[in-house]
Amino acid sequence: THELRVQAVSQVTDRQPLPVKVPQRLEALWATDVFTLSKMQASLPKDVYKSVKSTIQTGGKLDVSIAGTVAAAMKDWAIAKGALYYAHVFYPMTNATAEKHDGFISVQSDGSVLTEFTGKVLVQGEPDGSSFPNGGLRSTFEARGYTAWDVTSPAYVMETDNGVTLCIPTVFISWTGEALDKKTPLLRSNAAMNKAATRMLEILGHSNVAPVNSSCGAEQEYFLVDAHFAHSRPDLLLAGRTLFGKPAAKGQQFDDHYFGAIPDRVQVFMQDVEERMYRLGIPAKTRHNEVAPGQFELAPFFEAANVASDHQQLTMTLLKCTAKKHGFVCLLHEKPFAGINGSGKHVNWSVGNATQGNLLDPGDTPHANMQFLLFCGAVIRGVHKYGPLLRAVVATASNDHRLGANEAPPAIISVYLGTQLEQVFNQISKGETTSSAHAGVMELGVDTLPVFPKDPGDRNRTSPFAFTGNRFEFRAVGSGQSVSGPLVAMNTILTDSLTWIADELESEMAKGHDLTTAIHTVLKEVMDKHGAVVFGGNGYSEEWHKMAVEERGLANLRTTADALPVLKADYIEELFERVGVLSAVELESRFEVYAEQYILAIEVEAKLMVSMAKTTIYPAAMRYHSELSTTIANAQAIGIGLSKESAEKVAMLIGTMMDKISKLDGAMGKHDFASIEEHMQYCAKTIRPMMDELRKDADALEGEVADDFWPLPTYQEMLFVK
Ligand code: ADP
Ligand code: MG
User: Less crowded by CB within 10 Å, the N or C end of the chain?
Assistant: First the structure.
């Protein structure tokens, strides 16, 4: 088996990058595979086009009677692009993207065929999605799930080796309207936020406010490993991470990979991904090497949250399938390799509209500052009040390896504002007047606040939730996760806070105070009650972890088992019901699905560890031990005493490893749990530590056993041979 490793190294060394394609002009590529508004304009009757456009741009109600006309135009366009099939694409609660393909074919009574795509099938589909986890929802209501056309996210054609398919983004719901997916709550949360934000803008004196939308730009980190290596690592293939592996002598300590020259093979791969993204209308914008060897990042230009979320799912799909073409495996796991950085997804988020622009942009006029401070204050209140929710929406078995480990954001949710903004909010909370360098004594009425630079010079990389100039950046999101959950949570807590602030402002003004005074009073109250969540120091430090919990009363939910039950807490159910984003039943079904996924992920890993340790590592160690012992005995026979130290160490490690295997195996036999919460805790507190223990011995053996006996590609090979 060591042969396979040697072969892999030589094959990887000889591998040539795919030839560099001459890049096409961006204008020639852009959105060629998307059924864009301009394509609709060219192919639809004027009134139909106008109706669709109004639904897309201003959230007007979809006029279903036009569906047939749109479907026909869409079909013609897709067929001209080579499509024979169409698919309703939806996003089940598993973080995956799902699609069911149907042919355009329609058989006539005389046996001939036509291509057909009616309005009815564009608008609604009925995939047999009964195998998707639904947290008991469909057994409670009905067995079937429906997909329904989301007009606000454009249809596109997807080209794979198997042909071209017209893809239609859809929501996935039960027949009674319960959300079974990740898109429905995102659309609902955006609508709720629009309402609350519009009300706030009207209180501030704006009229004819354009619809407010949330925006998202998600930075995606990922690892590339050569397929020759990945294919001989069952753990990478089945669990997406290495369950065993001794860290290489060199890791990331020299920072020599970070922002370094991108290796040729990777560069060609990236260009290929970007070309496909451009064709699909996804605005890829930055690419670079990340901190860990073999780790990279890709970020698009931001878009409306709903579209960005669909595009993010597509991006993950493109990364994985393009990697295959280039002889790589793309790992989106949050911690594929121990001892070096893991991968996250930084979700940049803001809210804004066509009339007021970005509402989290401090701007440079006092009036805009006032508006900004209200929206920013609303976020601060939300993160403080619902911090555990933000932790819960990023809770997965794989992200547990990252959150709270020393390089990723801690599991404690705090807000970083930057020195200047933090100072402003501190002053608000103290009701202080302050002197500015230029204008002498300045009253700290909100309308006289200083102008902030758009991009504060200081950047705090240790904060899970950071203000970055004109948006918030939620950094605790996992690299393989859908961004929808985090976006739903952020929109929802903002809606709740804006509504609360608006109520307070109105009641202050009813008492006869003017708007500026009312704003000052309310913002002070926000800071008095919620300022504890603002933290500008080192989020990784021990002192912070102590202070956050003991002095500031912030939650430190270390594991998914601790975090997920938050979704069932009364105050969270009330929040989602009040805002109209998820009913208690829907929320509970989400909890069930996520909890089950967590347990399954750990069970698969534990099983795989036992089998790899038994059938791969143990035999290699035994063979090596036997060779050592024979050599020592042979030497002894001719009167030479060789050191037995290594042989003894190997024997000892084999012994303890086998004990740990049977312990873990035994522990996995337990099935009588009083609740799913208890089962999760068992995984977190019993199974996971046993896995870590087992790994220790196996990795120690890797350090003892002769290299030509070791069956698994090593960290050194996987991370450094390119
Ligand atoms: P950094 O690594 O410094 O955080 P990047 O340029 O890699 O910066 O990523 C920043 C991301 O934030 C990009 O996707 C960008 O489009 C996005 N972004 C910028 N402005 C907004 C906004 N108003 N709303 C949402 N995302 C935004
Ligand atoms: Mg960032």
Answer: N
Q: What single letter denotes the amino acid at residue 458? A: D
Architecture of the domain whose range is 22-181: Roll (3.10)
For the chain, percent of residues with pLDDT exceeding 70: 92
Span from the CA of 277 to the centroid of ligand 2 (angstroms): 20
* Ligand closest in space to the Cα of 472: 1
Entry pTM: 0.94
Q: Verify whether ligand 1 is closer than 6 Å to residue 448 (CB atom).
A: no
Closest CA to 371 of 423, 446, 300, 314: 446
Rounded distance from Cα 374 to ligand 1 centre (Å): 22
Closest CA to 87 of 70, 104, 72: 104
Question: Tens digits of per-residue pLDDT, 359-414?
Answer: 999 876 655 688 999 999 999 999 999 999 999 999 999 999 999 776 678 899 99
What 3-state class would DSSP assign to 220?
strand
Going from N- to C-terminal start, the domains of the chain cover: 22-181, 191-202+218-582, 597-720
What pLDDT, on the 0 to 100 scale, is given for residue 369? 82
Cα–Cα distance for residue pair 438/510, rounded to 1 Å: 36
Could you give the ipTM of this predicted complex? 0.96
Q: Calculate how far, in angstroms, residue 137's C-alpha sits from the geometric centre of ligand 2.
A: 37
- CATH says 597-720 is which class? mainly alpha
Q: Which ligand is nearest to the CA of 218?
A: 1
How does 638-659 read in b/e, with b if 16+ C-beta sit within 10 Å? eeeeeeeebbebbeebbeebbe
Place 135 in a pLDDT band, splitting at 50, 70 and 90.
Answer: confident
pLDDT in tens, 416-448: 998 878 888 888 888 764 433 333 333 444 454
User: Does residue 672 have a pLDDT over 90?
Assistant: yes
Instruction: Decide if 472 contacts 379 (C-beta within 8 A).
Output: yes
Q: What is the CATH number of domain 191-202+218-582?
A: 3.30.590.10
Residues near 223 by Cβ (< 8 Å), separated by ≥ 6?
292, 294, 295, 296, 330, 331, 333, 336, 337, 343
Give, using CA atoms, the residue closest to atom 14 of ligand 1.
Answer: 217
Q: Is the CB of 358 under 6 A from ligand 1?
A: yes
